[in-house]
Write the structure tokens for this entry.
Amino acid sequence: MSSDNRPFVTDDSQVLTETRDARMTGGDNRFNSKLREAFGSSPFILTKFDKFMNWVRGSSMFMLQFGIACCSIEMMHTYAVKHDLDRFGAGVPRASPRQADVIIIPGTIVSKFAPRMKRVYDQMPEPKFVIGMGSCTISGGPFQEGYNVIKGAEEVIPVDIHVPGCPPRPEALVYGVAKLQERIANGESSPVTVKPYELEQFGDLDRDEIVQQLADDIDEEDLVMRYDWADSP
Amino acid sequence: MSLEDPEPDAPARVEERSPDELAELLGDDIIDREQHLNAPGYVIRPDAVQDVLSTLRTDAGYDHLSCVTAQEYEDRYESVYHLRKFDDPTQEVSVVVPADRESPVSESAEPVFRTADWHEREAYDLVGIEYDDHPDLRRILLPETWQGHPLAKDYDQDRPQVVPLRENANPLQEDTRSEQDADTMFLNIGPHHPATHGVLHLKTTLDGEQVADVESDIGYLHRCEEQMCQNGTYRHQIMPYPDRWDYISAGMLNEWSYARAAEDLADIDVPEYAQVIRTMCAEMSRIAAHLLAVGTFALDVYGDFTAIFMYAIRDREKMQNLLEDISGQRLMFNYFRLGGVVWDLPEPREEFFEKVRDFLEEFPTALEEYHDLISSNEILQMRTVDTGVLPPEVAKNYGATGPVARGSGVDYDLRRDDPYGYYDELDWDVVTDDGCDNYSRLFVRLREMEESAKIIEQCVDLLEGWPEDDRTIQSNVPRTLKPDDDTEIYRAVEAAKGELGIYIRSDGTDTPARFRIRSPCFSNLQTLPEMAEGEYVPDLVAALGSLDIVLGEVDR
């Protein structure tokens, strides 16, 4: 078969683009990513499945479209043009918690909203991650002394990354998301905290004396939640 | 509801009556007279509220119940009704209703002014005054389970609020359908929902797909702003909070509301140069706030993060860069001070003015783009024209202000009618539209941005030519500010969403004894049932988007 009849073969001298040139000569290593180096010439890699899954999780995160207060404006700016969180594989806000991996808590949590936020968090599928955005989710921020304000998101749900600021700049949120991705890729996430009022669900666990003491504090007939758990005895 | 027909002799209503004439008009209902800094105050009998308010409304023309302030004294409770006129908001009167210390009850104003409904519920919730004849006196901002009234004197903040878990049981139980009628469905929208612009909960009753009834459940962002301000000192500690009421970059406008009230209270002058800077910054904030309103409205109507939203954010970024140059912050500026602003415009000034002029030069093209994409788009017009109709008399009755009122043809803008800052020296127009629907509210915002750009341009011209040795940015204000004992003032400015009023009562110390925020969104949101009932659910969402509420300001 003569070379003239072979399909899809073009003259090499015509397609020496700059990109190809850069890759071949190594003058610009943008195209020789770590992944490509790891692959080498082989299309196969050897890794642990868990490690691979963690890498995948960190690299493609679906955020929950969840706005509370001032920080949600900066969060919108982070998603939108200029800052474009999508560049980091984390820019697809999902309106439903059932489809989301990460919840960014952007704002002050007050007593009326805390149970609702807990429910939204509970509705997210595992594994799930939480970014606390702004001072209010750390301690209540400027509103800490308010009668109605929850003193930080960790009173209600476990938080993986705290981004301080009032509000944090979009760059700070991007940094927080990147840090979370790094942690996820390393297989870390915050431990699930169990509030004493949830102990009932873990009734089949062995009870050490602390758990026993906490369990004894609970009136089985009428479970209560306190909005200011940290200050309670 | 007492919806009156507009009187034919409208100009006659602007006629002002002297305090003595008003006192004569009210007759025996008055038990005492007070003098507030902004208006004469009449102390009236607690069982004559409806009589007094309807007399003032029909006979004296005070048709705008701007705010209701409730507070507790050592010996009594007090509700103050701040009335003014839509035609001339400089004519004000305060109606003071005392209530007994032991059982605080007074008559409700709801039958006269619909807007009193929510205001009185809030007063009941936070201070604990009860209103006779109120149709629905429940808590509004705090959860139903709350114990005590947090702004009352005997409230103990350290007592834990313990709530049974069953109170927070899932509201989405099997009662989503009515038992009597298969077509009637109950639908909860929010508090976590993309269309509610934050944490608003709408309890809707649907007949098929039509909204039969909608009730807004607010308070999911009630972060005690009034308490925070009452704990802070006048001079420095209060100013950071206004930024966080309406947090859509509208901080400068909110700061101005506090600055205006406190400056009038403590009799502080503001140098002219600072007033020009304030005017410029405020209009920049207004453009940024309206851009987000337009962008999210398109988001609500078209339903995804599409071009218009991204365009709006792009232009907001430019504006935020300018505001950051001025104040050092993108969102929470904290730039105003009592008696001026914190520092002068950024150096080099020429470079800054150049940036502002660049923005102003590109802005008409950007607005043209918005008009192409939004206001002249047939799809959007089909969705928004003649939906969410709010007639002007209804808007007035609910105390709606800002673009919501101006979209209903109510020609009310405090920048012109109750001038402050440098507005009365500049050349600009108040935008109104008679459409009364979702479209006209959107259109008013788009055109208001043009006017704001005009104001900014004139301010830049003024600032550029300002002589260098006359650039006083702050007047001399004492480090510790202690206004006279028992002085009361209510002052409002035109914020991005409407009339943002502040009531302050001083008690001779360096912190306010009562700090009340009259939020425009709070009153505007109250009109939602009027606009949405009978419409389809998508029109409810459009109506909510066109109201442009910010929950930080609704709940405070």
User: Anything to note?
Assistant: Chain B touches chain A through 54 residues (CB under 8 Å). The longest strand of chain B covers residues 64-72. The radius of gyration of chain B is 23 Å. Chain B is about 35% helix and 15% strand.
